[in-house]
Write a structure and sequence with these properties.
It is found in: Cell membrane. The chain has about 600 residues and is of the alpha+beta class. It has 17 helices and 16 strands.
């Protein structure tokens, strides 16, 4: 046995299974046993707490109801007309009929104000009121019956239970009270108030009552006056002398007793105004049934858990551990530079499949990057060759433009000379000796040169206004940012309305940024162009021509300074456009002569 166990534990996977079971199943069983005991104790305590609280509230409600009922009865027997009619028996048939109607009316009116099944008022001598007794459906000889004489001789009101065997009538709890004259202790009659079981059951319908839990009301002798479970025990004497004895000693309590061969958890509360006791009975098997059901389910779970645990370990080994090991081997080959390895295709939709597909994708991307790097290096050398091949000597170009200007002025064409001079200035500022950094002042000079050329080309003046802080003119600035935007405003916004069109350039310093606004009162920029600027695709970059200047400036700002420095455009059709450039204040300074 021991040798077999040792052989079983020699495998790493088997050792993991044994360790897994040891650290899960055994503590699980111990915890289940402890939880079972504590659960039963907790359920019992919760039931006791709830039942006692509920019984206290039910006692208050029942006593309040009975007190209101007694007040209604006292109001009835205190009626002067009723007292007068019972004090003087009728002498004639007509007077008897009139008295009967009056007495029934008084009782009926009081009945409407009282929450009871039935209220009956009997004269102390029923034979003197035969018509009234017939209206009550009672014989005038009822006064000779035992219960009537007992009630007439009783000085104290009492309760009496009557249980009918009929199919349509349940038990009645009757409150019998003999009343006297208002001015003397002379007996005048008997009032009987009947309560059905539903008058009391409404006080004993808790929403959280356990299955088969019932509530009882017993009198001082132990007789059951009310049973919430369909009056199953109503009329019987509670078969628990121990509970009755404890009831006589304490106003409330808790017991675990056997009643009718079934163990119950019992709580009771004695009423203050009546010698009654309210009792809650909960069968113990109903209390522990949820726990027992849970224990049976727990046993099944433990057995299934043992089998599933072994299966899970085997499944994890075959479907996860081994594929991960294969992936590790492939990664080692990749480290060695073997890009021609075979990567098996995985159709799995879980993480293992994602790992294999992701690893394959990474290998392919690495191959593509290597190919792109090779092509980029080749393209770079081609571009360097083209730049060297097409490079123009700026001094030669400036001298040539100066010669053209001199000849134009000698022939009296000053307008051509000025245009050529502006073009040379624009070219000089645009080239900026091949540097990307210039100054705000040089950018403004370039804009002015461009505007001068445009004015000469279209043959009419353009209204372009400049408002810049003097402090920012010498600050470093990326070149070719303002001229494309001014060109865009002239060519696309105020074109066709040069007489009234106006472009305003204003610049200021805000915290660590240079802020420049280019504002015009032209046609505005279409929403489609602005939307394309925000969500630009590769096709738009390659094929689209609309908004090239905007796109160029916007992309350069984002590339150099980040997304927070992209162009801010406010445009309304027919009103105009405001484009705001935010440019960080750079510490880099221009070289002399730049």
């Amino acid at each position: 046995m021991i040798n077999a166990f040792l052989r079983l534990a020699s495998s790493f996977r088997n050792r993991m299974i044994l360790i897994f079971l040891s650290i899960t199943i055994i503590p699980f069983i111990l915890f289940s046993a402890y939880a079972h005991t504590k659960s039963i104790e907790g359920i019992q305590q919760a039931n006791i707490t709830f039942s006692m609280s509920y019984l206290e509230q039910a006692k208050i409600n029942v006593e309040t109801y009975l007190a209101q009922l007694n007040e209604g009865i006292n109001s009835l027997i205190g009626d002067k007309t009723l007292q007068y009619l019972l004090e003087r028996p009728p002498l004639t048939q007509k007077e008897e009929e009139t008295n009967s109607v009056d007495m029934l009316s008084i009782v009926y009116e009081k009945k409407k104000q009282m929450d009871a099944l039935q209220i009956r008022v009997y004269p102390l001598i029923p034979a003197d009121y035969p018509t009234y007794m017939r209206a009550l459906e009672e014989s005038a000889s009822v006064g000779e019956e035992e219960w009537f004489r007992q009630a007439a001789d009783s000085n104290m009101p009492y309760w009496q239970l009557s249980v009918s065997d009929g199919p349509n009538r349940g038990p009645l709890l009757s409150y019998i009270k003999t009343f006297t004259s208002l001015h003397s202790r002379t007996p005048r009659g008997i009032v009987i108030t009947d309560l059905a079981d539903n008058h009391l059951s409404r006080f004993f319908s808790p929403t959280k009552r356990l299955q088969r839990q019932k509530f009882l009301i017993i009198d001082e002798k132990g007789a059951i006056l009310f049973d919430s479970a369909g009056n199953e025990w109503t009329g019987d004497v509670l078969p628990s002398p121990q509970l009755l004895a404890k009831r006589n000693l304490y106003n409330e309590g808790v017991e675990k007793l056997s009643i009718y061969d079934q163990e119950h958890l019992i709580t009771f509360v004695r009423m203050d105004s009546l010698p009654w006791t309210i009792i809650s009975l909960t069968p113990m098997d109903a209390l522990v049934e949820p726990v027992m059901e849970m224990n049976r389910l727990l046993l099944v779970i433990i057995i299934v858990y043992l089998l599933v645990s072994i299966g899970v370990v085997i499944y994890l080994t075959r479907n996860f551990t081994q594929p991960v090991l294969r992936l590790v081997r492939l990664m080692k080959k990749l480290e060695e530079g073997d890009f021609g390895m075979y990567i098996p295709h995985q159709e799995r939709k879980d993480e293992i499949g994602w790992l294999f597909r992701g690893f394959g994708s990474i290998v392919r991307k690495i191959e593509d990057l290597i190919a792109q790097s090779t092509r980029a290096e080749r393209s770079k050398k081609e571009l360097e060759f083209q730049v060297l091949s097409h490079q123009i000597n700026p001094h030669f170009l400036y001298n040539t433009l100066e010669s053209i200007r001199w000849k134009a002025e000698n022939h009296g064409r000053n307008d051509i000379g000025e245009m050529v001079s502006a073009l040379g200035n624009l070219l000089r500022l645009s080239l900026n000796q091949g540097k990307d950094i210039t100054t705000v002042g040089r950018e403004i000079e370039q804009v002015k040169a461009y505007v001068q050329i445009e004015q000469a080309r279209i043959g009419m003046p353009l209204r372009v206004v400049y408002f810049f802080d003097e402090d920012m003119l010498n600050m470093t600035f990326m070149r070719l940012l303002l001229q494309p935007l001014v060109e865009n405003a002239i060519q696309h916004s105020i074109r066709g309305n040069f007489e009234h069109g106006k472009v305003i350039l204003s610049g200021r310093i805000e915290e660590q940024d240079l802020v420049i606004d280019i504002t015009d009162n032209g046609k505005g920029i279409p929403d489609s162009v602005i939307q394309a600027l925000e969500e630009e695709s590769e096709d738009q970059k390659m094929n689209g021509r609309s908004g090239v200047g905007l796109r160029n400036v916007n992309e350069r700002l984002k590339i150099y300074f980040g997304l927070e420095y992209k162009l801010q455009i406010e445009s309304k059709e027919g009103i105009g456009t405001r484009i705001t450039i935010r440019h960080p204040i750079l510490k880099e300074k221009l070289e002399n002569g730049a």
